[in-house]
Amino acid sequence: MRGFRTYLVVSICLLSFMNMPDIAFAEADSTSSKVSEETPKPIAEWFAAYDQIRRDAEMPLSEKLKYGGAVKRALKTGGKLSASTQKFAEKMIAKFAAATAAMKALTPVPETKELHDGYIQYFTEMEKNFSDCVNKQEIDASLAESKSAAKRSIETLNNKNKKLDDDLRTKYDVPKHKHS
């Protein structure tokens, strides 16, 4: 039973983190990166800074694949994080901490306040999610339950953020986020 719980917890972590690019960031398209002349300057400037923060926090596909492999290896060792997985998770903690700090330092305009706050919450929750995995020496049932609830919460928040992001970009004619 203990092996199944370990498998369940690590699988939940894997699913949560493997979906991160889809969760964390709006899809890029071939739209020009130029903001419309009709877009108010404060909104255009806020989106430019916000998009850079998001690019800096992205998880490249190569890291996503490497992390997936590392989690599979963790399953084979009883749920403990390998040194490379631990190092990767610590890197992601630092990325999300930096993104949270950068978002907090960015002054929102009234039109972007809700999205601004949503991404502060998102980056904070992702940092906590990675920290929980790093700080647990052994994967157990309590971590499985908390990871499952955290995954649902993050997905709900992300869907809300993505919809708001899309609505604001449409309203103010701001191109979609470009990946790094």
- Which of globular, elongated, flat, extended, rod-shaped describes the shape? elongated
Poorly predicted regions:
2-15, 17-32
Binned, the helix content reads: over 70%
Mean pLDDT: 77
Measure the end-to-end span. 43 Å
- What is the β-strand count? 0
Strand-pairing-aware structural class:
mainly alpha
The gyration radius over C-alpha positions equals 18 Å
Task: Give the biggest sheet.
Answer: none
- What's the SSE pattern? HHHHHHH
Structure annotation, total helices: 7
Relative strand content: under 5%
Short description:
The protein is mainly alpha-helical. It has 7 helices and no strands.
General description of the model:
It is built from seven helices and no strands. By secondary structure, it is an all-alpha fold. It is elongated, with a radius of gyration of 18 Å.
